């Protein structure tokens, strides 16, 4: 069987469906090939997975007509506090403090649970996007006018362009001959949701410790937070194996007591951390978005936001080319997307890499320099606002229309 589409997207996580909705909204025929069953992440129960959505990402969801239903499930991040130190050292003398009241755009970002975001994307695709769940892309052959996409059930799809939104181990990228570069951090992220006695007041905390950063991110309800805790591989392996009560005993001195007593609010997860950058984002009839293009350290919670920036730029590139009558899979069209996104994504990825390495240094002089730098940023309003706008995704230049909250 052979079915024709304008765009086939490999990967049904978050970036793939978001891109599909943006393209379908502009009249393109789109299929999403999703290896997981359609209801794999659409359950009602809270499982602890959540994302920090930048303001620009929230505007993209609004432009696609999704934010109205999602807003009630979002937790605004109104302040961000960051400091360095280790358990038992007491309060850090120098820290960063960002207050969203200093910028006109409102909150620095929003915390959103995976279950709500995925469910909204799944519902929006119905009747607009061909969602092929439980299938995977097994092969691809790029031709002069189309790309043939072989699925795991023997189906062959034909499209003008194939998008790889299939993660760090992207099969689309591998089959297209796109090489990757990067390195392992020797760290593992421990992820969990925590109930706490005192309200978080919409404040996100980031602690930089020698063994890795710890982020405490506010979730809806006021008394629940998401924890992303990076530790050395050996430490993380031992901690992950602990029973829940012992896990909390190890976490508590790192977490601190500013939110009172803590308890687990869902299952725990762990995943190894590495940097993985595709050397190219495009080849003829193929383009990559999200982790397929750039897998980054979660130190600033920017992984999904980077992917959504890709989505906005690629959707605009393809839609504008289609309206001009161009071949949307031609390499000269796709290279416009690559030129738009590669510098921003690579510089942010390497910037997060540098921050992680810098805060992993225990030299007293380096620690003192870090503290002075944090205090300098906190003391200068223009620097504070610049960092906040960067975190909010508002410094992308040029800014794709979707990230401005505008329709394609």
> Can you count the beta strands?
20
Share of helix, binned: 25-40%
Classify the beta-strand content into a percent band. Answer: 25-35%
Count the helices. How many?
A: 11
Radius of gyration: 21 Å
Low-confidence stretches: none
Overall 3D shape: globular
State mean pLDDT (0 to 100 scale).
88
Q: Tell me the structural class.
A: alpha+beta
Between the first and last Cα atoms, what is the distance in angstroms?
A: 32 Å
Major β-sheet profile: 9 strands, mixed
Descriptive overview:
By secondary structure, the chain is of the alpha+beta class. It is 34% helix and 30% strand. It has eleven helices and 20 strands. The chain has helices at residues 15-25, 55-63, 67-70, 114-125, 171-175, 233-240, 244-255, 303-323, 331-359, 364-379, 381-391, and strands spanning 2-10, 30-34, 50-54, 75-77, 79-84, 95-99, 109-113, 130-133, 137-142, 147-151, 156-164, 180-196, 203-209, 212-219, 224-232, 262-264, 269-278, 282-283, 286-288, 294-295. The strands form three sheets. Strands 5, 6, 12, 13, 14, 15, 16, 17 and 20 form a nine-stranded mixed sheet that branches. Strands 1, 2, 8, 9, 10, 11, 18 and 19 form an eight-stranded mixed sheet that branches. A hairpin with a 4-residue loop joins strand 14 and strand 15 (224-232). The longest helix has 29 residues, at 331-359. The chain is globular, with a radius of gyration of 21 Å. The mean pLDDT is 88.
